[in-house]
Amino acid sequence: QLQLQESGPGLVKPSETLSLTCTVSGGSISSSSYYWGWIRQPPGKGLEWIGSIYYSGSTYYNPSLKSRVTISVDTSKNQFSLKLSSVTAADTAVYYCARHPVVAATTLFDYWGQGTLVTVSS
Amino acid sequence: SSELTQDPAVSVALGQTVRITCQGDSLRSYYASWYQQKPGQAPVLVIYGKNNRPSGIPDRFSGSSSGNTASLTITGAQAEDEADYYCNSRDSSGNHLAYVVFGGGTKLTVL
Questions:
Q1: What would the pLDDT profile of B46-74 be if each residue is shown by its tens digit?
Q2: CA-CA distances (angstroms) from residue B4 to A107, B16, B22, B52, B74?
Q3: In this predicted structure, what is the pLDDT of residue A104?
Q4: Closest partner residue to B42 among A37, A63, A114, by Cβ?
Q5: Within an 8 Å CB–CB cutoff, is residue A47 touching chain B?
Q6: How close does chain A come to B33, measured CA to CA in Å?
């Protein structure tokens, strides 16, 4: 059974960089059938796609966050990571990592991590 | 980028049928996927593609699409179906299939 687990600091200071890692177990991150994505959810609000990465390192970012986001992959560790720079209180959210199958006619996230709350505060 | 619009809240009597809709230009070209999210939990995929259910999702959940509107139908709603529901689809303004857009979510209340 595929499992994803987010890890990283739960508290980040304003203007600093948020860094999270997603560890994938029960399957290979190097499969050509999947992207791997990050999604966030501010408290009491909806879901927002942050970006996705392919095992080759190709990245796709939400245009509204693109200037501050970097997603990378480490196939040797079966992990992918998120960095979000210059954070503000508006970046306080539960951050999820998820598997993103390569499907032409639609898009979906079929396996999700449990999520990790990141609070931006001094 | 594209947008997907959902009604903020919908209610249904126990055992009745409810349809939750999602509107957006990208749905003219691509299918929506639907997620159920209960408080304090990660979203769960319930419908994807034309009308596909992942393993373990009850067959009372079904999906359909017409024009710029995708629908999630729950036939015979149960108390445990009370949750937030989100649609998503490809962002048609992006030049690659990896670009994603989510709807704002619909809170379903089962009366």
A1: 999 999 999 999 999 999 999 999 999 99
A2: 14, 26, 6, 20, 20
A3: 79
A4: A114
A5: yes
A6: 6
